[in-house]
Amino acid sequence: MKMTKILSLVLVLVMALACFSLVGCNEKKTYEITMWVSTTEGVDDLFMEQVEAFKAAHPEYDFTITIETVGEGDAAGEVLKDVATAPDMYCFAQDQISRLVQGGALAPLGAQAAATVTANNDPGSVGAATVGDNIYAYPFTSDNGYYLYYDSSIVSDEDAKTLEGILAACEKAGVKFGYELTNAWIMAGFFFAQPVEGGEPLCHNTWTYSADGKTVTGVDDNFNSDNGLIAMRKMYEMASSKAWLNTSGDFAGTGALVTGIWNAGAAESVYGDNMKATKLPTYTVDGKTYQMGSFSGYKLIGCKPQADETKAKLCSDLALWLSSEEAQLERYYEFQWGPSNKAAQANEDVKGNVLLSALLEQNVYSVPQGVIHGDWWNEGALLGEKCKEAGLTEADLKAALAEYEVKVNAMVAK
Amino acid sequence: MKKLNSLEYLKLSKSQALWYDVRMFFCAIPGWLKSLFVGLWKYIQNFGENVKDEVLDIINTFKKGNWAVKLSFLVFGLGNLYYGQVLRGILFLVFELVFIVYMALPSGGIYWINKVNWFITGQTVGREQGGLKYNPVTDTYGWVEGDDSVRVLLYGLLSVIFIVAFIATWRMQVKQCRINMDIKEKRRKINSAKDDLKSLLDEQFYKTLLTPSLLGILVFTVLPIIYMIIIAFTNYDAAHDGHANLFSWVGLTNFNEFTNFGSDGLSAALGEMVGWTLMWAFFATFTNYFAGMFVAIVINKKGIRFKKLWRTILVMTIAVPQFVSLLYVGRLFDRQGVIGSFLESANLIPESMIAQNDYSLWDNPLTAKILYIVINLWIGVPYVMLQATGILMNIPADLYESSRVDGANSFQQFTKITLPYMLFVTGPSLLTSFVGNLNNFNVIYLLNGGGPVNTKFGTMGGTQVGHSDLLITFLFKVTTGGESRYYLASVLGIFVFIVVALLSLVVYNVMPSTKNEEDYS
Question: CB contacts < 8 Å between A and B, how many?
Fold first, then answer.
């Protein structure tokens, strides 16, 4: 009797389990997607609204999404800690793309998606998303560049045109001019300068990658040259000025500062109504005048490679939606993020924005930031560090450039 | 150097005696090192002897044993079962079965161990490379899972540890057979399961208590350390992260960087770093110690009012999280920070610094180093003060009274009573704080990231070398820098371990607390 009781209990349990598992099979699969977006206040809410709109427009997908905030500059570091547990989608600044591709953390775009991205976004941003033979990410802003902010009560519009003018005006007023030389991204503006009468930039720094995007196969860099020395000399001259301050974000006590659109709020709070923005100044060495260049940068949405193909398709469609013209314009209106979408760039409101027009003005002289080896940023920053020292001769500057060349060439895989 | 006898020593003047002590200290260091290595050598020798004894014991057990004992060399626990120890026997048997099943499973021990390609230079850790695969139907790229070197190595290592545990258990049960045989020979009673359990709560209670902590140490300390050491023999970095690109064994290549003795090689940079690390640990520890003690004594003095208020004010710095206060205080001294800009506008920056374009205290290597030590003082004094307050109250008051009767002034009281007592009690904690300061990441990194940058060395391991980088902050920068060189970090970690271990041993040997253990008891 007892035996039968136990047996029946076991059978009932087995039946129940079987029923549950059958129900589980019949149910349509709900995907769970996690996404990282900028830490700027309110960005996660806007992304959430846009995802809800996507859900409404695409009833064929059944998914839930969790949006978390991680700075776009830190995304690669966080994702690569463990790709397996990293979020399915994330926003990142383009300088990290080579590390992410190398780490297998980005799925290349399918043919259709790639065609859409190429057709709708400006060429610089598409280039930024391309590694080797494939496009790996969806551009959604084209404003990651830097330009000059100045306080027009201290630095006149005329002064702001030349580096010498800015430094003189700041020295006279006893304020500082902020230019972060120890940040290779901003420092490179000196090396990418071009003669005002037109022509090629002084220097270039281009990396080539293998077709799968995983290894650096070569670098074409002429920083260590007579042209590079022109830039280096000017950097050293600026660093020797009492007015120079090594910052790209602290506006207090400055009369002018070189940074990007993300610091617009800080600039306005210090400079107030006197805040103006324009392209970077020119500088003069040995009687020749050069217009300073810059890196133009982009922000991208990346999707992690998925084992499940439906989920991969879902992520791809969602990323396309989030980087569409409407989504980019919404972000422009809410956060003044400059769009990478060509149609959005043509929008009247975007065109009329003072800061974005300063950026566009500078973009003429900018070098689209390609894919750069992760070690280069520290190596380039070292040139700026060198310029902070005192009593350097031209030979010292040359030696620093020669050392730089050796280290940069060593980064290429043998 | 000639050692003086006590009579000669007493003849020396005060300064001579001090000089003699200092010299004796440094002369003794080689001796300590020697005794350390002699000890190690003896240990190795003993180890050989022990192994021999063990093997002989095993052979004897097999020779003398009956069929059950002989068979238990293959089947765990048979010896115990034969002698009536059912519980032990079953536990041994279960362990063996679990081991065999785990090893033989399709994705079990042997599978993982086989995948690791242990230390074969040029071979990858893991065998199948994962990768992207295009699906034309959905027009997407999917990920085909391959091996993950990080996991392969971890599971392989765990399996090896399991094998070691298996061998140890085998030895243990063979030994128990022998013990049981001995007991039987002497016609005494063999412990039953009940006796065993009872004894675990009684005379062997320490085993019960120590087991969890021992397991914890094994899992959370020993295993990660072995794992990290193994990483030093691979090329694990951002380009070979184990997931998208398997990493491989590279033999001793990573250690070659240390033999690069050029003026701008890694070894030269490390040399400077070790120098500053030691200097920092010394100053950070002793400035805090003496300043903290001084503050405690002053507050403790009779006649000082509002004692609790002063203590509370000082302890406030502990209440604010260090991360916040260090970041904030570090920025105060920036060129555009409150103090930094005041120094500049009030022309308080020395001409010699301005001549070098150093407009803030953080820009100059020397002033930066001093600033680190001074700010560390502000962080560390409250801790020492609390500690010292407790100890000061513990010094018997009659010592002071009788010394006063004998005519000692307060300085003499301090050097002859307070300081020796303090040193004796706080010796071990001084050692730990010294070692802690060798690895004091927070203060150095959060205040100014180990800056200013040392342009003489430029970049090492893809990251900039700072003038005031400790080994530990440099290690952090190497790990988190552009190419995340985990292998180099591991090599550096081994290096840090050697430095810290040697220093700790030396310092531990000279502490009064260990030398004259009975003095104050």
Answer: 139
Whether chain A has a CB inside 8 Å of the CB on B129: the answer is no
How many angstroms separate the CA atoms of B130 and B359, rounded? 52
In chain B, what is the straight-line distance between the N-terminal and C-terminal CA atoms, in Å?
A: 34
Residue-range definition of the domain harbouring residue B321: 265-515
Of residues B447 and B13, the one with the higher pLDDT is B447
Say if B469 falls within a structural domain: yes
For residue A4, what pLDDT band results from cuts at 50, 70 and 90?
low
Residue B354 is assigned to a structural domain of this protein: yes
Residues B507 and B484 in one domain: yes
Whole-model pTM?
A: 0.81
In one-letter notation, the amino acid at residue B145 is E
- Residues in chain A closer than 8 A to B131 (CB atoms): 104
Whether residue A386 sits in one domain with residue A357: no
| pLDDT (0 to 100) of residue B264 | 62
Size of chain A in residues: 414
Position B490 scores a pLDDT of 92
| N-terminal to C-terminal alpha carbon distance within chain A | 78
Question: In chain B, which residues have their Cβ closer than 8 Å to the Cβ of A252?
Answer: 336
**DSSP of A150-165:** EETTTS-TTGGGBHHH
Peptide bond into A281 cis (omega under 30): no
CATH of the domain at B280: 1.10.3720.10
pLDDT in tens, A181-199: 999 999 999 999 999 988 8
* Angstroms from A252 CA to nearest CA on chain B: 7
Q: Which of B55, B52, B9, B3 is nearest to B24 (CA)?
A: B3
In the predicted model, is pLDDT for residue A1 greater than 70?
Answer: no
3-state secondary structure A94-128: HHHHHHHHHCCCCCCCCHHHHHHHHHHECHHHHHH
**pLDDT attached to residue B432:** 86
| The pair of three-digit structure tokens given for residue B221, joined into one six-digit string | 């300390």
Return the pLDDT at A274. 92
